[in-house]
Write a structure and sequence with these properties.
The chain has about 450 residues and is an all-alpha fold. The chain has 21 helices and 3 strands. Helix content is about 55%, strand content about 5%. It starts with 8 loop residues before the first helix and ends with a helix.
C-alpha cells in the first residue's frame, strides 16, 4: 500500500491517546512515532502535532463515520458558532456561571439577530455537546474573590502550557494585555474619586493591534506565540493571524502566570506616575490653579517614555517569575530598581499639597483602571466582530495643548539658564550637563536645517 501523507481523525485520536499514555514524550518523538505507526510518507510537522493535541476532545466526540474521515465536518452556521463562542469566552472572563440551557437560549437570541429564519438549528442537547467539545468548553465553575487565582487550574494546566512554550524560541514568545490609565488622576483620595467618575474611558483596540503585529511577523518570516488572558476584548476568532498563534490562559489563572500581570504593567505605571507627579510639583511651584491638569498629548508622550524606560532585565525577570520557562533566562533581580521608583513617588506625594494622600500602591493599582480595561462587549459588537467584514471606525479625538509652542530662541534660553545653574563638581550635574548640551545641539541642528530649506522657497 502506498504511504499516505494525511491522517484520518481516528489516527489523530490515537496520537492524542499515545501522548496521554506517555506524557513526557516530546512532540518531535511523537511525530516520528506517528509516521512509523501509520506508515506515513513524511513526518508530521510540529504545528500539525500541536493542532492535533489541542483538538483531542473534538476527536473523542466523533462517531465511527467521522473518525474514518480525513476531513472534519464543516459547521453549518459558522457566524453563529463564532459569536456564541466569543460570548461564552466573555462570560468566562467575567466569571459568570453558565448552564447548558442558558447557552442554548443565548444561541436562539443570536440566531434571531443574525436572521437565520428557517435555517435556525434545533439547539438540542446533542448540538450543545458538540458545540462545547468543538470549542473546548467544560462545565462552569464558580469562583470566589474575583482577583484570586485558581491554583488547582494552574497546577493542572502548567505542563500543557510549558510544552506549548517549548515549541518556540524565547524571542518568539509574546504577551499582550490592556490596562486602564487615568492619566491625570491626583494622588489625593477625595480628588481622585471625582476624577475617576469623570475619567477617560478608553482601552487598546486589541484586534487591530494583533492583526498589525501578525502582518509584521509575516513580513519578517517569523512564527510567534502570543500569550493572552481570556478577557472579553481578546476576541481572536476569524482574525487573519497567519504568523501568530494565540494561546489563551485558562480562566482565573492570569494573576499568577501572565508576565504582564507579574510586574510589567506595574513597572509601566510607576514610571508614568513619576512623570505625572514631577510635573505636578513643577506646576505647584509655579502656583498654577490645577496642578494635575495635563492634556492628552502630553500624557501619551509620558506613557511612551515610561514604556521605553522599562529595561529588558525587568521584562525578563517578570517572564521568569511566572514559572512558565524552564529554559535559562537572564538572571537579574530588579526589585531594587522598582523600589527606588516607589521611594521617589512617596517623596513626591509628601511634597504635594494633599488632604487625603494615597499610598503608592493605591496610586499604581486603582481598581477602577482595571475595570475600564476589560469592559463588557455588547451582543451587537460581538456579531460585528464575528462577521467577515471589517467595520471598525476610527475617530480622531481633539487634543488641546494649554501651552503655546516655544520658539527656538525661548528653548535655547531655558536650556542656557539650566546649564548656568549646574555645579560641574557634582557627578550628577556633569551627567545633566552632557544631556542638556546634547539637547541644545539637536535644537540648533534642526533650526539650521529649517533655515537652509527656507532659502529655496
Amino acid at each position: 500500500m502506498k504511504p499516505s501523507s494525511s491522517l484520518s481523525n481516528d489516527q489523530k485520536l490515537k496520537i492524542c491517546h499515545h501522548k496521554a499514555a506517555n506524557p513526557s514524550i516530546k512532540q518531535s518523538a511523537l511525530a516520528n512515532w506517528a509516521m512509523q505507526e501509520f506508515k506515513l510518507s513524511k513526518v508530521p510537522t510540529q504545528g500539525t502535532i500541536n493542532n492535533i493535541l489541542a483538538k483531542r476532545q473534538q476527536y473523542e466526540s466523533m462517531d465511527s463515520t467521522e473518525l474514518t474521515s480525513k476531513r472534519q465536518r464543516a459547521v453549518k452556521h459558522p457566524e453563529l458558532d463564532n459569536v456564541l463562542a466569543n460570548w461564552v469566552l466573555q462570560c468566562q472572563a467575567r466569571r459568570v456561571a453558565l448552564s447548558g440551557d442558558l447557552i442554548k437560549e443565548k444561541a436562539r437570541q443570536f440566531a434571531r439577530q443574525l436572521e437565520l429564519g428557517e435555517r435556525t438549528p434545533e439547539f438540542s442537547n446533542g448540538w450543545l455537546a458538540k458545540f462545547n467539545i468543538r470549542h473546548g468548553f467544560k462545565a462552569q465553575k464558580s469562583y470566589g474573590e474575583s482577583g484570586s487565582a485558581d491554583l488547582d487550574a494552574i497546577d493542572r494546566n502548567m505542563p500543557t502550557i510549558k510544552e506549548k512554550l517549548q515549541s518556540y524560541s524565547l524571542q518568539d514568545i509574546y504577551n499582550m494585555d490592556e490596562t486602564g490609565l487615568f492619566y491625570r488622576m491626583a494622588p489625593d483620595r477625595t480628588i481622585a474619586r471625582r476624577q475617576i467618575e469623570d475619567g477617560l474611558d478608553d482601552w487598546t483596540h486589541f484586534q487591530g493591534m494583533a492583526t498589525k503585529d501578525g502582518s509584521q511577523m509575516q513580513n519578517a518570516n517569523r512564527k510567534v506565540l502570543l500569550l493572552l488572558d481570556n478577557a472579553p476584548s481578546h476576541v481572536v476568532r476569524d482574525l487573519p493571524l497567519t504568523n501568530v498563534q494565540v494561546f489563551l490562559f485558562p480562566a482565573n489563572t492570569t494573576s499568577k502566570i501572565q508576565p504582564m500581570d507579574a510586574g510589567i504593567i506595574a513597572a509601566f505605571k510607576r514610571r508614568y506616575r513619576r512623570f505625572q507627579l514631577q510635573d505636578a510639583i513643577d506646576r505647584d511651584e509655579q502656583q498654577k490653579a490645577d496642578i494635575y491638569k495635563v492634556d492628552q498629548l502630553i500624557a501619551m508622550k509620558w506613557a511612551k517614555a515610561a514604556w521605553n524606560d522599562i529595561s529588558s532585565k525587568t521584562i525578563a525577570n517578570c517572564f521568569k517569575h511566572t514559572g512558565l520557562f524552564e529554559r535559562e533566562t537572564q538572571k537579574n533581580e530588579v526589585g531594587s530598581e522598582e523600589q527606588d521608583i516607589e521611594n521617589e513617588l512617596e517623596d513626591a506625594i509628601n511634597q504635594l499639597p494633599i488632604s487625603r494622600p494615597m499610598s503608592v500602591h493605591e496610586l499604581i493599582n486603582p481598581e477602577e483602571e482595571q475595570q475600564v480595561a476589560h469592559k463588557e462587549i455588547s451582543d451587537e459588537d460581538l456579531i460585528k466582530l464575528s462577521s467577515s467584514q471589517d467595520q471598525e471606525e476610527e475617530e480622531d479625538g481633539e487634543v488641546m495643548d494649554e501651552n503655546p509652542p516655544m520658539s527656538t530662541k525661548e528653548k535655547l534660553n531655558v536650556l542656557h539658564s539650566c546649564i548656568s545653574f549646574l555645579d560641574l563638581s557634582n557627578p550628577n550635574h556633569v551627567i545633566a550637563h552632557k544631556v542638556l548640551r546634547n539637547i541644545q545641539f539637536e535644537i540648533r541642528t534642526i533650526e539650521k536645517k529649517q533655515t537652509t530649506l527656507d532659502r529655496y522657497f
